Amino acid sequence: MTELLILTILLMIWTAVIRIVRKIRPGAVPAMAHFALRTPLRQKLFGPVATLKAADIKPGWRVLDIGPGWGFLAHEASRQVGPEGQLVGVDIEERMLHRCRQSMDAASDPASLACADGSQLPFRSDSFDAALLVSVLGEVRNRSELFAEVIRCLKPGAYAIVNELVLDPDYVFPWTIRNLAGAAGLEVVEGSGNILCHTTKLRKPLVETGYVPAQAQEAEVAGQVYR
User: Which end of the chain lies in a sparser environment, N or C, as judged by fewer CB atoms within 10 Å?
Assistant: First the structure.
């Protein structure tokens, strides 16, 4: 218990330092900062199974993982969609995609990884059964555009799961997520957790909200998709 308390305090100090740096130099979180999100403490208390519970992923689904990082959810999400489904990870950092790919290959998990900006997702409209945004929202400069793209890419009635952990240097409060999602036209289904770790379940309405989708095609070109 003492060791766990010490580790928690050290992580909070580390996170505070990273937040100060992030205020000075905003943008995507550098690889070294992901240390705080890859600890045994997170795996034990807020692991992939617990995080994905709200998504209720079914076999055969096509799931979009925005900002997969090192692949925190990738293995479990890939297992849940099964061989008939598809997990698609999108990250603006090529280095993180390569590391995610290494993690996926080590576990023999099939997935497609695309290097793209969340505000201009390279996918067709109404093409995903679920979207995952875990410890990523705070890194996005234009969150309104991100949510607009999420609602465009989701099938009508599909869910988006937004999860935030206080150890994230770019932690976002739940009420901020609800406000952004509502402005984009997503319905807030439920929220769970607490201020340390919370999950917001959102849904794309069955009836169109009037958002005009951008002209987007699958980014199946060299340099954009990592198989």
Answer: N
